[in-house]
Amino acid sequence: MPVIHTRTSVAVTDEQREALKTAYGQVIECVPGKSEQWLMCLFDDEVPMSMAGRFEEPCAYVTVDVFARSDVDPGVWQEMTPQICDVLQGVLGIDPARVYIKYGRSADFGWNGMNF
C-alpha cells in the first residue's frame, strides 16, 4: 500500500496532476514489491509554503509511505529522490533545491475494512 502525497505552493492543472500520477506510478517501482496497482496519490496545490525564509519561489513537500513489515533499504529512497525531483521540476518547474521528501514505512496498514 504505497501512498505519495504531494503538497506544492503552485497551482497544478489536471494535466499536470495526471503527469505526476503517471510518473509516480513508475517511481514507486523502486520499492521492492510495490507498483502503481496499489498506489494512492494525494495532491494539495497552492499551499502557502515558505522555504529558506521566502514564500516567493515555488516549493514542494512530498511524503512517500509504504506498507512494509521490515525496514526498506535506504538505497531505495536514494534512488527515488532524484526521480521525484526530476518529475517536479519537469512538470511544475520546481527547483529540486526547493523540494523536501519524507520517506516512511508502516507495518500497520488498513484497507477494505481490515488490517494487513
TrEMBL record:
Main location: secreted
Matches recorded under Gene3D superfamilies: Macrophage Migration Inhibitory Factor
Superkingdom assignment: Bacteria
Catalytic reaction(s) noted: L-dopachrome = 5,6-dihydroxyindole-2-carboxylate; 3-phenylpyruvate = enol-phenylpyruvate
Cellular compartments annotated: Secreted
EC number of this enzyme: 5.3.2.1, 5.3.3.12
Alphabetically ordered keywords of this record: Cytokine, Isomerase, Secreted
Annotated protein name in UniProt: L-dopachrome isomerase
Lineage: Bacteria, Bacillati, Actinomycetota, Coriobacteriia, Coriobacteriales
